[in-house]
Design brief:
Strands 1, 2, 4 and 5 form a four-stranded antiparallel sheet that branches. This protein has a three-stranded antiparallel sheet with strand order 3-12-11, with no helix packed on it. β4 (92-101) and β5 (104-113) form a beta hairpin. The protein has 261 residues and is α+β, with helices and mostly antiparallel strands. It contains four helices and 15 strands. The model is unreliable at 256-261 (pLDDT under 50). The radius of gyration is 17 Å and the shape is globular. It binds 2-amino-4-trifluoromethylsulfanyl-butyric acid and cobalt (II) ion (2 copies). 2-amino-4-trifluoromethylsulfanyl-butyric acid (MF3) is lined by residues 59, 62-63, 65, 70, 79, 96, 98, 107, 201, 203, 234.
Length: 261
C-alpha cells in the first residue's frame, strides 16, 4: 500500500473497459430498483449481469465478503451486505459495484431514491453528489491530493453535513485497493502530487448527523452512530495530461449533480 502504480495508456484502456462494465451494471440496477425489491435480488442481478458480460464481481470472497455487491440503506454508511431486506418507500440506497474485467478493476457507486423520500434525505444525497463532482474538478497533474478532501469537507460542512473519516478512496488497477489512500477531508495544497497515469477512486460518504460510525457483528456493515442518514457516490478516475477521465461515467437520474447547492 505504499508506492503508487502509474498505468500506461494500454493499461488505462483496460481499466476503461472494466469501468464501463461496472458503470453499465449500475445503470441497469437503477432501472430495476423499486419498493419491494430485496437487496438479495439486487445482488443476484449484479452477479449475473457481470458474469454474462465476461467480468467477475470483485467483492465476492474479498477478505471473506460473502456477496457480489454492497447495498447500504439509510443509516448504513457502506459495506451493507445484501439480504432479504426489501426496499421501502422513502429509503435511500447506495449500490456499490466493483467489477474485474481481464484482470483490471472498475469501482463505482451511487445513492438512489426509493419512492418518495424526505426533503432532508434529498438534501443529503444532493450534497454528497456535488461533493464528488467538486472533487473530480480538482484532479489534474500537479494538483495535491489534499485538495480533494478539502473541497469535499468544505462543501459538506457548509451544508450542515459531516464527512466520514474511517473509510477513504483508493488507488486501483490490477488490485482492488492500491496506494494511494484518498481521504475525503483534508487541507489545500497538502499531500501527494498527482501525476498522469495515476488511477484511483473518490468515494465520499457524507452523513446527515455526526461522522462517527460503528461496525455490526457481521464485521462489515458500517452504521452511523446516531442512526441518521448517510449517502455516498463513487467514481474511478484516471489522471490524464490535462485533467482526468471518469472511467465509470454513466447516465441516469443521479449520474451528475442535480441541484444548485
Ligand atoms: N467497493 C468498496 C469500495 O469502494 C469496497 C467494498 S469491499 C467489499 O472500496 F468486500 F465489501 F466488497
Ligand atoms: Co472504492
Ligand atoms: Co466501491
Amino acid at each position: 500500500m505504499s508506492t503508487v502504480i502509474i498505468k500506461s495508456k494500454e493499461q488505462i484502456a483496460k481499466m476503461r473497459a472494466a469501468g464501463r462494465l461496472a458503470a453499465r451494471t449500475i445503470e441497469e440496477v437503477a432501472k430495476i430498483l423499486k419498493v419491494g425489491l430485496s437487496t438479495d435480488e439486487i445482488n443476484a442481478f449484479v452477479h449475473d449481469y457481470t458474469i454474462k458480460h465476461g467480468g467477475k464481481p470483485a467483492p465476492l470472497g474479498y477478505r471473506g465478503y460473502p456477496k457480489s455487491v454492497c447495498t447500504s440503506i439509510n443509516e448504513v454508511v457502506c459495506h451493507g451486505i445484501p439480504s432479504s431486506r426489501r426496499l421501502l418507500d422513502g429509503d435511500i440506497i447506495n449500490v456499490d459495484v466493483t467489477t474485474v474485467l481481464d484482470g483490471w478493476h472498475g469501482d463505482v457507486s451511487a445513492t438512489f431514491y426509493i419512492g418518495k423520500v424526505s426533503d432532508e434525505a434529498r438534501h443529503l444525497v444532493e450534497v454528497t453528489r456535488k461533493c464528488l463532482d467538486l472533487a473530480i474538478e480538482q484532479v489534474r497533474p500537479g494538483a495535491r491530493l489534499g485538495n480533494i478532501g478539502a473541497v469535499i469537507q468544505e462543501h459538506a460542512e457548509k451544508n450542515g453535513c459531516s464527512v466520514v473519516r474511517d473509510f477513504v478512496g483508493h488507488g486501483l488497477g490490477r488490485g482492488f485497493h492500491e496506494a494511494p489512500q484518498v481521504p475525503h477531508l483534508g487541507e489545500w495544497d497538502r499531500g501527494l502530487r498527482l501525476k498522469t497515469g495515476m488511477t484511483f477512486t473518490i468515494e465520499p460518504m457524507i452523513n446527515q448527523g455526526g461522522w462517527e460510525l460503528y461496525i455490526l457483528d457481521d464485521d462489515w456493515t458500517a452504521v452511523t452512530k446516531d442512526h441518521k442518514l448517510s449517502a455516498q457516490f463513487e467514481h474511478t478516475l484516471a489522471v490524464t495530461v490535462d485533467g482526468c477521465e471518469i472511467l465509470t461515467a454513466f447516465s441516469g437520474p443521479l449520474a451528475s449533480s442535480n441541484s444548485n447547492i
